[in-house]
Amino acid sequence: xxxxxxxxxxxxxxxxxxxxxxxxxxxxxxxxxxxxxxxxxxxxxxxxxxxx
Length: 52
Known about the structure:
- The protein is of the alpha+beta class.
- It contains one helix and four strands.
- The radius of gyration is 11 Å and the shape is elongated.
């Protein structure tokens, strides 16, 4: 799992490099947003953004 500041922008950027979102961008209460992304080598990584 990797932490970042703007998860939507990160996912958009990764898609331009061939990555695809696994499932959908999700939010846990008002605390975190997270997503799983599969890269071109089929490696799945987790992305998280702390809110507030």
